[in-house]
Each structure stands twice: as C-alpha cells, then as structure tokens.
Amino acid sequence: MTLKLGVPSKGRLMDKTFEWFAQFCITLSRTGSEREYSGVVRGIAGVELILLSAGEVPRELAAGRIHMGVTGSDLVREKLPLWHTQTKQLAEMGFGQADLVIAVPDHWVDVDTLEDLDAAAAAFRARHGFRMRIATKYHRLVRIYLRTHGVADYQLVDSQGATEGTVRNGTAEAVADITSTGETLRANHLRMLSDGPVHQSQATLFTSLTAPWDDEALGAKEEIKKRLQLRD
Amino acid sequence: MPNKPAILAEAARLRALFESAGAIPVETGILQPADLLLDLYGEDIRARAFTTSDPLHGEQMLRPDFTVPVVQMHMASGADPARYCYSGEVFRRQEDDPDRAREFIQVGFELFDGANPSAADAEVFALIAQGLADVPLRMATGDIGILIAAIHGLDTTERRRAALLRHLWRPNRFRALLDRFSGKARANPRRAKLLEQKNPFRGAGPEIGLRSRPEVEARLNALRDDAATPPLPAPQVRLLDDLLALSDSAPAARNRLEDLAVDMPAIYGAVETFAARLDALSARGIDIARLEFEGSYGRTTLEYYDGFVFGFYAEGRHDLPPVATGGRYDALARVLGQGRSIPAVGGVIRPDLALLIGGAR
Q1: Is B98 on the interface with A (CB under 8 A)?
Q2: How far is A114 from chain B (nearest CA, A)?
Q3: pLDDT of B229 over the 50 cut
Q4: Of A132, A165, B151, B208, which alpha carbon lies 20 to 30 A from A8's?
Q5: Banded pLDDT at B208 (limits 50, 70, 90)
C-alpha cells in the first residue's frame, strides 16, 4: 500500500510544511479548487497526501489510518496519553514554535513562580469559596504539570479560543495557553510565570507505530528518511 | 481475570459478611454531581473519573467510589452512629496503563461512631482481614494522624504549619517547603528584591480579574512576615524526617514511635491512639507482628484520610492495585456534614482481585 502522509490542510502550517518537504525534493501540493481537500505528491514514489486538520493528526496517527503526519508536538502530547507507544517523533521541523505557558495578571506582583501560584490559590479559595480558575484547552498537559509541581486548590475551565481575554471577562483568574512571542499575553495585561513553559512545541513529523506497515509503505518510509538524512 | 458471575458471587459473600457484622446495605446513584467531587478532590479527580454531562444538571461523574455518596447520605440523615455496607461497580479513567480496569466491583463497609475510634479502626480492619482470610496478602498500615500531630507541634508560625499540612498529600511540594522553612533551600532571590521595593506595584499592569489588589497586598504582607521568620529548629526537622522514614513491623514501630514521642511531645496523644489501636487489633485476633507500619503510608492517595490508613497487597505483584484499602476520614465527614460531624472509618475490597490472588494459590 502507499504510505499515507497526513499534513495540515490550510494556512501557514500547510505552506510551511510544503516548503519544508520541498527542500528535500519532495513536492507536496493541493489539487483541484481552493476548497477541495485533495493533494498530490511528486518527486517520490509510493506516498499519498492526506490533507486534514492539524488537530486530527494525532488521532489518525494513533489509529494507524495514516503512516506519517505533521502536527504540533503539543497536540500529540495533549491528545495521546500513550503517545510514545503509538507514535515516534521523526523530525522537528523548525517552524510553528509555540510554548504552552501559565500566565497570571501582571498586577499579581506576588506571583512569580509555581510555588507563589499555589500559595495564592490557597488564599483565593479560602476567600472566595471556590478553587482558582485557570482557563485552557490543554487540560491534560496542564493538569499533569501542576500535579507534578504540587500545585493545589485550582480548577481548569475550558477555553477553546480568546483564552487571554478570560481574566478580564471574569471567567478565570489565570490562563494556560500557547504563545510564540508573548505579545497577546502582554496586550491583555498577563505575565508568564518564571519557571519556564509547560511544554515547548513546534511542528513535528511523526510516524505511526500502529499503522499497517507493508513492504511498500516501509520502502517509502526508508526513502523519505534517506531524503531527510535521518537515521533511526 | 475471574469471570463476572464468580466476581458477583464473591461480592455477595463479602457483603453478607459485612451485613452479619451489623451493617445496613445501601445503594447510591452511579451518576454523581461533578462539582462536589471536584471541590473535594480537585482537578486530579478528572484524571481518574469519567465525566459526562446533560444540559439540565451539568457535569456528572460516574461514581469513582462509594465513600462520598454514602457519607453524604449518612450526614443528611442525622449523623448518628451507624454501620453501612455496599457492593457495586465503580468507574476509573486510565490515562497511563491500558491494562488497568476501568470498571470494577467494590464491596465496602463504613462505620460512623466516635465513642472509641481505636476500637472502630480495629473493627473495620479485622472485618476486611476476615473477608480476605483465604487470600495470601501483605498488610501495610500507616497513621496520617501522627503526621498531622507532628506538624502541629513544629516550632514555627501558624502559616507555615498550615502550608505543610495542606501539602501533606503532595510529598514533593512538602519536601520543598520543609527545605525552605528549615533554611536548607534559599527562597527565590527575586522575591527578596520585590519585598525590598517601596512600591512593589510600580510598573505593574492594571487590576484585572477577581483576585483584587488587597488580596495581593495581603500576600505581600504574609511574604514579609515569612521572610522574617526564623528557620525551623534542625532537631525538629530531623525528628520529622525520622517519622516519615519509619518502616517496620507494627510492634517495632510502636517502640520507635514511643521513643520519638519523648522528643516530640506533640505526637504523644496520636501515638497513644496508635498503641490503643494495636491492642484492639490484637484483641480481635489480628497478628500484629505481621502488620507493616510505614510513617509515610497513605500520603500519595487522594487527600481524605486523616488517621489510620491501610492496604492489602498481593505479594510480588506490583503490577496490581491493592486488593483492599481503607482508613479514617473524620475531616471528610465534617466537610460533608455542613455543621454536623461524626468520626468515620471504612474500607473496601475488590472481589475480582481477591479471587485472582486467592485462586492463583
């Protein structure tokens, strides 16, 4: 069977991915109209292009419906608890860099580290009668991170967009969100904790460990790895 | 794994045993309101319980255990002394190990009675041991009450004691706090700088969100107090470390704890309770020389046990969860009692694991 390569279907992430593969003389392109999600691969045999949303790539890799896929490492770790048994990271692609960080209102001058956040959460709960709310869409990564670092008395509230606005809107006290430059955080009077990011993400090429790897697919994978000058 | 009819038969046998010990059988809903469980256990419960929702009642959880609904029911009905038992399915999400069961049966016994806590502890433990008499298991015990008493006795500020108590169930954070309070680890140097500033709010952003400027100021004051607090006396830290590291047979641990209590008078009462419990266990026919005691036992569970804690484990099967667990949870009963309170202790058995281990002999 042909090797199915899953790639983000639109926007900057798609363009950058196409550019990245082009350096290795693997030409990916969309076919048909602007709106049609079909594509074609030139310059290498036995590879089929699957265009899909970056958020769906982890699930498709885990299910083995695609052999390889490009997506952010943050999405793979958030969506696949057993990601290291289902996927293998083949190459970091050097774009789409973004850090998952925890940020608090800048006027909380007493909160600089996770230890401060924890102490502030304890006092907040005692005063307001509920746990300090942290808005995020990265529930699993943030929960594991805060548990590992012994932060208590918080709750995660779901925010699928405009997360930086939740504090001003009164639906959260702090946020855990992706940022590349920190500008949106600053514009919303938020400041990240000094402990460092929860996770440093970038666009990454993964292979699926669960996909049906027959000789043809394996052959195509070896050819891709040769082009990319990767060893196991 | 044993088959379902065999597990149900074993569950029925255990429940009958609990009923013969005077327990009233009770049932609880499988769907439990998520807000109460989240408030009690925090965000970690989301990693362990299945969450679902409907548009009318909001978030619900498939019951991750029976204790909370049983305690709630009991406290609502008047908080008089009582014994309850139950048997039914509980549900656990698994994020790390695909081989762990997501639904399994628990058979439990809960005892509400404050007249003689040591005797109540022994009654629950002996009943669980009786239910598992045919299964070769290692018995581990601990006593969170002794740890709590030890922290109360530390020669430092109320705020520092409260911080340590709050993190008793998070050993890493607890250790970090203890290191800082004892002067072993330095505080964040940026904090010292902040506290020196005349106006720490200079250059800071506008006040947004629910946590107000007075709350920030209150914490700055707390930080100033803390910076001026002398370190914990080194001998007290050593004693606490000895207590946390204690691991021995119960009779040997009793000698060691009685020694420690000479230098840590704050734990004297808790050690007396521990000793009375051992006597009560002996009186119920438990061979206490076979009981293991660990000073830190129970610190990595969800935080509601605050006294006696125990677990029954299959020897050499680190891949399996404990076959039975239990302990005292006076504080939980107080929180759920909303003003009413009664000391409570309980334990649960997993009949599937009891059969698996018992049948493997």
Answers
A1: yes
A2: 10
A3: yes
A4: A165
A5: very high
Return all residues near A145 (Cβ < 8 A) that are at least 6 apart: A198, A199
The answer to whether residue A109 neighbours chain B at the CB level (below 8 Å) is yes
Spatial CA neighbour of B185 closest among B231, B116, B137:
B231
Residues 36-65 of B with CB under 8 A from A: 38-39, 42-44, 46-47
Write out residues 145-174 of B within 8 Å (CB-CB) of A: 163, 166-167, 170, 172-174
pTM metric for this prediction:
0.87
| Helix A114-128 × helix B158-166 angle, to 10° | 100
B24 pLDDT band, cuts 50/70/90, is very high
Q: How many CB pairs under 8 A join A and B?
A: 114
Q: Which residues pair with B311 in a beta bridge?
A: B140, B325
Determine contact, residues A230/A113, Cβ cutoff 8 Å. no
Chain A residues with beta carbon closer than 8 angstroms to that of B190: 112, 194
What is the residue whose two structure tokens read 């548009």? B55
Q: Which residue of B has its CA nearest to A171?
A: B209
Shortest CA distance to A3 belongs to which of A230, A229, A228, A223?
A223
Let me know the angle formed at the C-alpha of B315 by B312 and B318, rounded to the nearest 5 degrees: 90
Please name each of the domains of chain A with its CATH number.
Answer: 3-96+202-227 (3.40.190.10), 98-200 (3.40.190.10)
Which residues of B, range 173-212, sit inside 8 Å of A by Cβ?
173-174, 176, 188, 190-191, 194, 200-201, 204-211
| pLDDT of B341 strictly over 90 | no
Q: Token match 């009375």: residue? A: B276
Question: Would the CA dihedral through B7, B11, B17, B20 be positive or negative?
Answer: negative
CATH class of B4-136+315-359: alpha beta
